[in-house]
Queue: 2 jobs
Job 1
Amino acid sequence: SAVISQKPSRDICQRGTSLTIQCQVDSQVTMMFWYRQQPGQSLTLIATANQGSEATYESGFVIDKFPISRPNLTFSTLTVSNMSPEDSSIYLCSVATGWDQPQHFGDGTRLSIL
Amino acid sequence: GDSVTQMEGPVTLSEEAFLTINCTYTATGYPSLFWYVQYPGEGLQLLLKATKADDKGSNKGFEATYRKETTSFHLEKGSVQVSDSAVYFCALSARGGSEKLVFGKGTKLTVNP
């Protein structure tokens, strides 16, 4: 399966600031996704990152708060904007290498907001 | 909407014990079903999958069978090891996995020597 690298692996940030998380894959993939895992909770899809066009956001998530880019088939970024303590979570990138293929996940970014 | 209901944890077993983690789902159409595992401090790893009714997914001694009549996908292992200690997530997707994954709440398994 594809090798997925996420950076940073963890960070501690001040409230009101923004952080950009990178997801790099070692091969071209069809689909890229961003999920959030709040402390002790399950995973929730934030958005599907679309190559060359605006991301598709799930209910409850907006572009102004979580802008996403996907300039090519191997790279995507998620920005968490104007952070508050409620944004403290693990953010995970996942990819599917083709239609009807399972998703594989990166190791995640552990984000704490003070 | 689609949903996954997973056995609440935590589950604590002794090494070599039999494991069952129950998972049931609600979905329109015919989803694909997955078990993912999250080891401490790591991301999620795909453990096994099944894409149609009566399919059995298996990996590393774990098995799960897609039961359409009971809308279930229970995870089993005949003899657990300490290294199996992790959080296990049941999930579904409308396609083979290339669409949104809907996750259960996760079940934390601890295996004692």
Job 2
Amino acid sequence: KAGVTQTPRYLIKTRGQQVTLSCSPISGHRSVSWYQQTPGQGLQFLFEYFSETQRNKGNFPGRFSGRQFSNSRSEMNVSTLELGDSALYLCASSFSGEHNEQFFGPGTRLTVL
Amino acid sequence: LAKTTQPISMDSYEGQEVNITCSHNNIATNDYITWYQQFPSQGPRFIIQGYKTKVTNEVASLFIPADRKSSTLSLPRVSLSDTAVYYCLVGDIMALYKLSFGAGTTVTVRA
């Protein structure tokens, strides 16, 4: 069974631009969560989608948004990029979100210049 | 989620047993203890989870004392490939999809 895939793996943007990241969950998984990981803040929860609906949201500004499609694939969008948005963005999928084990993708490394 | 405290780093040698202790004084009745492993430029990987006493799988063992205010992850006979960051998480098993990771413990295994 293929794992969680994320595209692109690396991305360089400039301040003020916007970016869209993509995540394909494991086949059959309906829950997709997004996380931001930085050296200073560690790994922080952004939001979780289940059956095309945002079910939970972390403490991030409205510039961070996401969506989920009917095939469970998810996208995350960050608008008006700031230098502090440079991070590794991780996507994780699980069958229902309530299961104890999440499967993480390799992440997208975003650099904002 | 309950706050956790674990050592910033640990060094070991191949073939040794590595024990990482995590403190979680404010653990709630419904909280489970979960450990994840993360290699550079990769997402975290689930290692083990437990509620009380001892849990063992093919990768590690998790020891949880009766008061549950701490837990110890034990990695038997480590190899160079076990060099990674290990995260201890404590929380309601029904809310683990919004995990909050701390700084973790960087384990370095030397030859």
